[in-house]
Structure formats: C-alpha cells, structure tokens
Write a structure and sequence with these properties.
By secondary structure, the protein is an alpha+beta fold. β7, α15 and β8 (374-376) form a beta-alpha-beta unit. The chain has helices at residues 14-22, 27-39, 42-51, 64-77, 81-90, 92-98, 110-122, 126-140, 166-185, 189-195, 206-210, 217-239, 246-266, 337-345, 364-367, 422-426, 431-434, 449-458, 462-468, 472-485, 494-515, and strands at residues 147-158, 267-269, 275-277, 295-298, 304-315, 321-328, 350-355, 374-376, 394-396, 401-403, 409-411, 417-419, 442-444. The protein is flat. Strands 1, 4, 5, 6, 7 and 8 form a 6-stranded mixed beta sheet that branches. It has 21 helices and 13 strands. The longest helix has 23 residues, at 217-239. The two termini are 38 Å apart. It has 4 domains: 14-123, no CATH class; 147-157 and 293-378 and 469-515, 2-Layer Sandwich (Nucleotidyltransferase, domain 5); 166-277, no CATH class; 390-458, no CATH class.
Length: 526
C-alpha cells in the first residue's frame, strides 16, 4: 500500500545546512524548509489524500503535500509546468524544500503535476491553501482569529489570450473548427479549408489572405460577406461529413457556436441583406476566442484594459490576505463580494470593519451588512454649484422627517425623492441660495443615505480621516501580489486565473508569517 502522508525530516542535514547558508535573497525557500511540517500537517495531508489519488504506476510514492508545495513554489518563482520538472533536477533550493536533495529523477512528472492542479481547481481546494496560512498565523499569535478588520481593493489583470477585431475573431473560430476536422481525418488544413470554400483560413494572416483594401468600406462589407458565407458552408460540411468522428464534430460545432456568438454581437444586416459591423459595443462583448471570460474594462476614463479585475481582502491587523476574487474586467467591483463572503465562511471569523473605496458601496456586503459591521469609505461628493447641497438639510431618522435650512419639515423615505412645495419655496427668504426651480427644491434620499451621512461625518474629523487612510495597506498587498503574479494572467479562463491568484495570496501570506515574531517558549496562541 502506498503511504498517504509525506514525512520528511524536520531537522536540517549537514548538506541542507550548506544550501540554506547560500540562500541570500529568496528566503521563502528557507522558511518552507523549516515549517513545511507545520503547513502540511497530518490532518491536511489526509484531506489531500482523500481528494487526490495518483494513477501512475511505479516504485516511488507520490505525495500530494509535495505537489502542493511545488504548486506554491511555481507561483513564487514564476516558472512553467515544464520548468517545474527542470528546476527539481537543477535547483537545490527546490530540492531543499521538497526533500529530494541531489536527486537524479524528479519525485513526480509533469502529467501528475497538471492532474493535481486540475484536482485543486475542481474541488475548490485552492481556497483551502489560503486557510492553511491563516491557521498557521493564528498558531503563531499574529492576529485575532475571531474578529476581522479588513480592507478590500482591486487592480487590473490583463488577459493571456489575444484580443482581436470582429473579422479575425470570426476567422479564428472558423480556423479552429476546420483544424479539428483536418486533424481528425489526418488531412492538411489547407485541403479541408479549400473544401469548405475558405482557403484563406489556412494562411497565417486572414486580412493578408483576403487581400482587400481595408480602408474601403465596400471592401470591408465584402470581407464580412466572405467570412459569413464560409461559416455557412462549414456548418453544412459538418452535417455532411461521415468521415469525421462524433467527438471531432462536437468540438468543431462548439467553435462554430462561438463564431455565431461573435456574429450576433458584432454584425447586423442592412435592408438590402448585406452585413455590416454594428455601431457601438454590445453588452458583455466577447473579445477573444481562447478565453471566453475575458472582457474590456476600464481603470479610469482614459485607461482601458482587457482581461480581469483581481480583488484582495487584507487583514488590517495581521497583514494577511484573507480572501481573493477575480471578475471579468467589465463587471463592477461590487459583484465580487459574494465570493469574498464565501471565502471567509470557513475561517470562523466575524467581519467587524470593512475599509473600501466607493466602487464597493453597491455590494451585497454593504447593502446587507450586519449591525456590528462598520464601513469605512470616502463618501460620494455632494455638489450643487454655489447653492445649498443636500448636507444643508437635516435628516431626522427617528421621525423620518427632513428639515430644510429655513426650518420647513417634510416626511421622507429612503430611496425616494422629497419635493418641497413650489409656493413654500417661492416665499422662502433663502430661495436664491437653495434653488432656481419654479417647481421648488427636491432632495433625493439614497436607500443607504444613513450610511452615507455617517461616512461624510467621519471624514470631516482628523480621527476619521486617519481611519480612512488605513485602506492604503491593501494597496501595498496588491502591489506585492502584482510583483509575483505580474500584470498579465498566466492562464486562459477565469477559474484557472483565480487559482493562480489564490496561490499568490499564499505566497504573500507566507512572507507575512515569516516576519512575525516567534511566540515565547511554551506559549500557544489562543
């Protein structure tokens, strides 16, 4: 029976001591060598063993804990799957951590490593790796485990797939479908493409192969018609292709469905039946073939990016990243908080303070917050030229009445607009300072107006502004995450890139734990 748990030695051997002394900068290797038995204790190793059962045959056992450590080191050193196997044989720092010093054969192969990653993703076990670091920090006594003061922020993550215009998107999807059929039948792509009436698909550049004047609107219409005609012929070919296997037909059909999705979002038909590109951008427009979740997004009005937004929740007391999220670039920041709540659920923690920017004010976490959760955020500015702003009006929440600067009182309801009578405003001595409308002054009451009033009141005091500045800590964490992960995604697909972000969060947390002072001898954190 193959062993379940990996039990490497705790004490350094003389050979390992020499390696440790030579490590000057990448100190995470040293930290993991000293603490790998704490991070991957017997309980967690049994959890891993239940999830991952390796199917390879051989004399040497493959331990899930070793694979998990290699997964973390891959994120730390930013190497490919092939390079993981290479560094296992050539980098003594990797060998030090994975207990294979001076090995002539890697303890596992690339296939096993890739299967293990797929298992982590499929079982949502990459989130458990973050929880492990939280538990490890708790044992070291670095923070309060029960009550959480946290800051949440986001940064752009450019997608790994190529963004293309409509012509190339359609051509790319068509080429993938034809390539599947050609490979399945053992034929040349050019031959299959010619049979489908689209020989230009086999060329490296679709626009060069079509050889048109792309500055001429008529040529663009001709190109679009040619591509769409090829799509129709390809669909007919798939229906009448007895030589292709059902699996190949299914895969090719899926790519044709992507092409039709591009057509639906980007193309419209003129009254005379000719196609043309749609003006404007379709909602939730697909921008690449290889990654269906990538989207256009904006960091600011002038700065656009293509891909995702990564979100990081930092513990303001312990410095750990407690949860992360990844959303398509076109979605509002507020959409991520349901995922953040799910990540925190298994950490047995109560969120008491949340420091955010205004993009998260519309989130579920704020709108449906618990009574004991305090929100810290700069309020939206209230402007009304040189006349009275909403802040000049007093809201009596106990009586649900609003008082204007002249003392007129009216009832109000959150989420609705209060309209002062026109005749009352016309006779008011403060009218010129308040409104020029002949219909009288109106004041919109936001559904969360009471929270906004608290935020505005807090930021006018030095103590309140000092509290707001605590959010800058999460910006530091985002900068460190970007340092390891980079600004461009490693994978195609949102879920795989979330996996990558989670293990980067583990790398961040391990650095934080390494800097924590050791507890006094005999003292165990509560």
């Amino acid at each position: 029976m193959r062993p379940i748990n990996w039990c490497p030695p705790i004490e350094l051997s003389s050979a390992e001591e020499k390696v440790v002394k030579r490590i000057k900068r990448a100190k995470l290797f040293t930290f993991l060598r000293h603490h790998r038995h704490q991070l991957f204790d017997d309980t967690f190793q049994e959890e891993l063993a239940q999830l991952f059962k390796d199917s390879s045959v051989g004399q040497a056992p493959i331990y899930p804990a070793q694979l998990a450590l290699a997964t973390i080191l891959q994120a730390y050193t930013d190497v490919s799957d092939d390079e993981v196997i290479e560094v296992l044989l050539m980098d003594r720092r990797w060998q030090l951590v994975l207990d294979c010093l001076d090995c002539e054969q890697a303890p596992f192969g690339k296939g096993t490593f890739v299967r293990f990653r797929a298992m982590l993703i499929a079982k949502d076990f990459d989130r458990r790796l973050i929880e492990l670091t939280v538990e490890m920090a708790q044992q070291k006594g670095g923070f309060s485990a029960r009550h959480l003061r946290a800051a949440l922020d986001s940064s752009p993550l450019w997608g790994a797939a190529r963004v293309e215009d409509t012509y190339n998107l359609l051509g790319h999807a068509l080429r993938k479908a034809l390539d599947i059929i050609a490979h399945d039948q053992g034929r040349d792509l050019k031959e299959v493409a010619t049979e489908a009436g689209a020989p230009w698909v086999a060329d490296s550049s679709l626009k060069a192969a079509l050889d048109l004047d792309w500055d001429d609107p008529a040529a663009k219409t001709q190109a679009l018609s040619t591509i769409l005609q090829a799509l129709n012929q390809m669909e007919g070919l798939l229906q009448q292709s007895p030589q292709a296997t059902p699996q190949a037909v299914q895969a090719a059909t899926e790519n044709m469905a992507v092409a039709r999705q591009i057509q639906q979002q980007d193309v419209e038909v003129e009254p005379d039946g000719s196609p043309k590109l749609r003006k404007g951008t379709a909602k939730d427009r697909r921008i690449t073939i290889e990654d269906a979740q990538m989207r256009h997004g904006r960091k600011s009005r002038k700065q656009r990016f293509d891909g995702y937004k990564r979100h990081v929740l930092r513990d303001l007391d312990g410095g750990l990243v407690r949860a992360v999220g990844l959303t398509p670039a076109n979605l509002p920041e507020a959409t991520v908080t349901d995922d953040i709540i799910a990540d925190l659920k298994d950490q047995s923690v109560t969120l008491r303070e949340l420091h955010i920017d205004r993009a998260y004010l519309a989130s579920h976490l704020v709108k449906h917050r618990a009574e004991d959760l305090t929100i810290f955020c700069k309020a939206w500015p209230v402007r009304n030229g040189d006349r009275f702003t909403k802040q000049a009006f007093t809201l009596d929440w106990s009586a649900q009445r609003i008082h204007c600067p002249n003392g007129v009182r009216l009832p109000f309801e959150p989420g609705k607009v209060v309209r002062f009578p026109a005749e009352t405003c016309a006779d008011c001595p403060l009218q010129q300072q308040c409104t020029t409308s002949k219909k009288g002054r109106s004041v919109s009451i936001h559904p969360d107006e009471q929270l906004f009033a608290e935020l505005r009141q807090r930021q006018v005091t030095p103590a309140g502004r000092a509290q707001l500045r605590q959010r800058v800590q999460v910006e530091h964490s985002l900068a460190q995450v970007s340092q390891w992960q980079g600004d461009k995604a490693r994978y195609h697909s949102q879920r795989k890139n979330l996996f990558d972000l989670r293990r980067i969060a583990v790398v961040h947390n391990l650095h934080v734990i390494a800097r924590m002072p050791d507890p006094p001898p005999g003292e165990i954190a509560a």
